Amino acid sequence: MQKNNSPIEAKAWQKLEEHYHELAPKHLRELFAQDPQRFEKFSLHLEDMLVDLSKNRVTEETMQLLTDLAEELALPAAIEEMFRGEPINATEGRAVLHTALRNFTDESLEVAGENILEEVRSVQQQMKVFCEKLHSGAWLGYTGKPISHIVNIGIGGSDLGPQMVCEALKSYQKEDLRISFVSNVDGTDAAETLRHLDPETTLFIIASKTFTTKETITNAKTAREWFLKKAADKEHIKKHFVALSTNVEAVVEFGIAQENTFRFWDWVGGRFSLWSAIGLSIACAVGYDKFEELLKGAEAMDKHFREAPLRQNIPVQLALLSIWYTNFFGCQTHAVLPYDQYLRLLPDYLQQLMMESNGKSTDRNGKRVDYQTQPVIWGAAGTNSQHSFFQLIHQGTVLIPSDFIAPAQSHNPLGQHHALLLSNFFAQTEALMKGKTEAEVREELRSKNLGSEELEQLVPHKVFEGNKPSTSIMFKHLTPYTLGKLVAMYEHKTFVQGVIWNVYSFDQWGVELGKQLAGAIEPELLGDAKATHDSSTTGLINYYKNNR
Ligand code: F6P
């Protein structure tokens, strides 16, 4: 991957700056009025997926200039390097090949002399056999009862992805099998989950790429203790604990049988790992065939991302739009608003995906960047979010680009619910775009027979500036296949942003310092060691010690 690509030195960047000054004063209403074909021109398609970019503050010139920027910064070569398995995670010396986990072609892909696709398929086969045993009732607990509850213990990428997907595919969930997720080292998480479970019918999936993460290992030990309290004999562990990890040695040392270990590899990043063995809880929840459909949806997006011209390339265009708002409009946040209750965990999942990947201020040359990188990702399911934070998006002082996401068909077609839900989706994007002018407000208030003083007082509060950008993403139905496409779309968007910002998207050194300091504080809380930190940290530790 090229290292000297400072985006702000690119010729296209200078042109975008000039273009920004021309375009920024224009209102989206004007852009729509000028071009009746705007929706068609700014719609992108992949199979049944529709991505409508037309309510963004862009013209065709904007998208062309942004695409020129991507070309100038050698994006096509960077995409190929990732798919080919070059060690693009340079600070850890690793390839980045989550795409290999959903590669169903007959190709071979060599990493360090091994065809990794063969290894991938062998673990997939192991997962399939395990799921079949579980679902057929052939996998029995230590007292001969079938498993009725699975608890995934993991954190970050070993939790957020599988949990989000299990929630999104709840309507496909196997009956007679419940799935819970424990991630927080706060004992409440484990306690509240275990409270209602029976060790005889519970199976724990310990998910950790490194198998050294403190939170996960602590929760796993608590689960083992809880289990052994009733089961007594350590021999029974092999019927109730399986592990997903790259670190088989540590798994075995923990006491989980090697044959109960589902491997993956260091070329799978934690936040990109739901397609690997880390997805075992998903396969258990919905069945291995549905898990495979999820992978196939992602594969379709991979193919599109690798082959479609940049101007028609959905992840590329979404990433470029984000550059436009972040680096030219100065937007610092981006909202993700799924109008589908099943997708309510998508914003949480995307927070890790995007903010852990591109929340960086050092470029690939080791220099501090002098431009903004990853905006804050946040959001919640519509319509609940309309009754919470939409006020600020409509009338606040900051500009917040947003993604609205919805299926045309609901899994729960109750009465008029889905039409009502989607009328809100469409209305919100329309309102954000159009706003309401002072003249329109006056006209509306005139019919209400208000006194002129009251009317004048109200007018400024009821005006909506509009011109707030949104992208609408729709598909027919939320199936495992569509979900795979959607998630892979955001993965590739994240990758493209990182290429443009010239940062390494696949490491996460920023999470280390806190872990290191917590390791130093731990003995001060558990033993008698005296706390010697800055006055605030020492004061807080002492408050805890005096009040526990
Ligand atoms: O938060 C840092 C991190 O390393 C994430 O990138 C990762 O997903 C998470 O911790 C969990 O790591 P592991 O799967 O190794 O337990």
TrEMBL record:
<dbReference type="InterPro" id="IPR001672">
    <property type="entry name" value="G6P_Isomerase"/>
</dbReference>
<feature type="active site">
    <location>
        <position position="515"/>
    </location>
</feature>
<keyword id="KW-0324">Glycolysis</keyword>
<dbReference type="InterPro" id="IPR046348">
    <property type="entry name" value="SIS_dom_sf"/>
</dbReference>
<dbReference type="Pfam" id="PF00342">
    <property type="entry name" value="PGI"/>
</dbReference>
<keyword id="KW-0963">Cytoplasm</keyword>
<dbReference type="InterPro" id="IPR035476">
    <property type="entry name" value="SIS_PGI_1"/>
</dbReference>
<feature type="active site">
    <location>
        <position position="387"/>
    </location>
</feature>
<dbReference type="InterPro" id="IPR023096">
    <property type="entry name" value="G6P_Isomerase_C"/>
</dbReference>
<comment type="pathway">
    <text>Carbohydrate degradation; glycolysis; D-glyceraldehyde 3-phosphate and glycerone phosphate from D-glucose: step 2/4.</text>
</comment>
<dbReference type="InterPro" id="IPR035482">
    <property type="entry name" value="SIS_PGI_2"/>
</dbReference>
<protein>
    <recommendedName>
        <fullName>Glucose-6-phosphate isomerase</fullName>
        <ecNumber>5.3.1.9</ecNumber>
    </recommendedName>
</protein>
<keyword id="KW-0312">Gluconeogenesis</keyword>
<comment type="similarity">
    <text>Belongs to the GPI family.</text>
</comment>
<comment type="pathway">
    <text>Carbohydrate biosynthesis; gluconeogenesis.</text>
</comment>
<dbReference type="InterPro" id="IPR018189">
    <property type="entry name" value="Phosphoglucose_isomerase_CS"/>
</dbReference>
<dbReference type="GO" id="GO:0016853">
    <property type="term" value="F:isomerase activity"/>
</dbReference>
<feature type="active site" description="Proton donor">
    <location>
        <position position="356"/>
    </location>
</feature>
<comment type="function">
    <text>Catalyzes the reversible isomerization of glucose-6-phosphate to fructose-6-phosphate.</text>
</comment>
<keyword id="KW-0413">Isomerase</keyword>
